[in-house]
Design a protein that fits this description.
rod-shaped, about 60% helix, alpha+beta
């Protein structure tokens, strides 16, 4: 019996060594745990997080927890290395998102188009009054548009800020659960951009209201002058 035990251990070790996956590995049809199906699959590589495959539609990297258990169990796992890799990838993703968000903001230009100044209308008092009244109507339409722009910008900023922080939980085939807290800095950058957009719209509204006040004062003066003739 004493001789049988070491022999059994030796055979077990040999069997495990024989199970080492040789890449590339032809798989054929691969059905994921979430039901997604890949056709003509070939496993071409492995890292700490999952496997790299080619398939009929292109290439993909599949996390171990999404693979069918029978296939996932064939690959050695290192949870510490997987955690480190996920953290590094999250940092890289955050840096990429910030760069994209910055480019989006720069492309948008944060344009702040100046408002139309009070018209210096020519002609008699009636023509000047008509021009000023048309100007007031344009300013009032602009104010309503700016209010809508400010409201929409604030709503978008609020929604982006709410979605910026989220939790990712993964469960391995062996039941090992990992939870990650992540912040999408791209969403925060865009939220700040929309906040500035809302403030710009508010400033336009204030400026337009002052211009309307000035126009109405001119109209009153012109109407008084017209009555005095």
């Amino acid at each position: 019996m004493k001789l049988l035990l070491p022999l059994f251990l030796l055979l077990a070790a040999w069997a495990n060594a024989a199970e080492t996956v040789q890449l590339p590995l032809e798989v054929g049809t691969l059905t994921m745990r979430d039901g997604k199906v890949y056709e003509s699959v070939k496993v071409t590589g492995q890292d700490a997080v999952g496997v790299k495959i080619t398939h009929a539609g292109g290439t993909a990297r599949i996390p171990f927890e999404k693979l069918p258990k029978a296939l996932s169990d064939r690959f050695p796992r290192d949870h510490a290395a997987a955690k480190k890799q996920r953290e590094a990838e999250a940092k890289a993703e955050t840096a990429h998102d910030k760069a994209v968000a910055k480019a989006d903001v720069e492309e948008a230009g944060e344009k702040n188009t100046p408002l139309e100044n009070l018209p210096d209308a020519a002609g008699d008092n009636h023509a000047k009054i008509t021009a000023l009244e048309a100007y007031v109507r344009r300013m009032e339409v602009g104010i309503e548009s700016a209010r809508m722009e400010a409201d929409n910008a604030r709503q978008r900023a609020s929604a982006m800020r709410a979605d910026a922080n989220y939790t990712v939980t993964t469960t391995g085939s062996d039941g090992y659960v990992q939870t990650y807290q992540r912040t999408n800095n791209s969403e925060l950058t865009k939220a700040n951009f929309y906040d500035r957009q809302a403030r710009n719209a508010d400033a336009k509204i204030t400026q337009a209201q002052l211009l309307i006040t000035g126009a109405n004062e001119k109209i009153d003066l012109l109407e008084t002058a017209a009555k005095g003739k």
